[in-house]
Specification:
The protein is an alpha+beta fold and 219 residues long. The protein has two domains: 132 residues, no CATH class; 49 residues, no CATH class. 23% of the residues lie in helices and 10% in strands. A three-stranded antiparallel β-sheet has the order 3-4-5, covered by helices on one side. The N and C termini lie far apart (60 Å).
Length: 219
């Protein structure tokens, strides 16, 4: 019994030690690069589910105080998206957790109507529909300065299920790595077929002076 308890403490200690009083972090310890190859598949899947369910906080980088959801800087950097303007149902961020939207019929699935996504709404700093706001894409006017409505500010769609998305992404990463290897092995004056996992992406070639010829690349 004592040995089992000591083994349990040794297993949990890195996670307990990483937590600090007053710290508001959903995941106190993240896997190090390469550590995913050293733990069992059930433990890896459990850690992935923990990340998916985690309610992220500001301490962990939650929110986007100085940029739009597109990655561009705010239209009005003088109005950073800090509380109470740090979350917005239409222009986002609109959830603290992946699970907040992807929860039906179980973790990783789709969502109810209340979790619908407003595509392109994230190009606004903070949607307000305030007609007196003159700055384009700050809160109420589009790129041409026209007032927007809930129907025109974005395209509403259902929250998609994500079952199998991780495997699809890993396949895409592997294909990308193989295509890059083919590209890097193409010498000046030569050409090679871009084929990976049985899928052809055409032919990549190089001129004698080393410049790339992508005229026959597909996709």
């Amino acid at each position: 019994m004592r040995m089992n308890l000591l083994k349990l403490i040794a297993t949990l200690w890195p996670w307990v030690a990483a937590a600090q009083i007053g710290s508001e972090k959903a995941i106190p310890r993240h896997l190090r690069d390469g550590e995913e190859f050293d733990i069992s598949l059930p433990d890896l899947l459990k850690h992935g589910e923990d990340l998916f369910r985690a309610v992220w906080t500001v301490e962990e980088g939650g929110g986007r105080p100085l940029m739009k959801g597109t990655g561009a800087v705010l239209s009005d950097p003088n109005s950073p998206l800090l509380f109470p303007r740090n979350f917005n149902r239409i222009s986002a961020p609109d959830a603290n957790s992946c699970f907040g939207c992807h929860s039906q019929p179980r973790v990783g699935g789709g969502g109810d109507v209340v979790a619908n996504v407003f595509v392109l709404g994230q190009r606004f700093d903070f949607a307000t529909f305030d007609s007196s706001d003159p700055i384009a894409t700050r809160g109420s006017r589009d790129e041409l300065g026209r007032p927007v409505t809930q129907q025109s500010i974005a395209n509403e769609r259902a929250t998609l299920g994500m079952f199998g998305s991780g495997y699809i992404e890993m396949l895409a990463r592997q294909m990308t790595a193989e295509l890059r290897t083919i590209r890097d092995a193409t010498a000046p004056g030569a050409s090679q077929a871009l084929v990976t996992k049985g899928v052809s992406f055409g032919v990549i070639a190089r001129f004698a002076d080393g410049r790339w010829d992508t005229s026959r690349v597909e996709g």
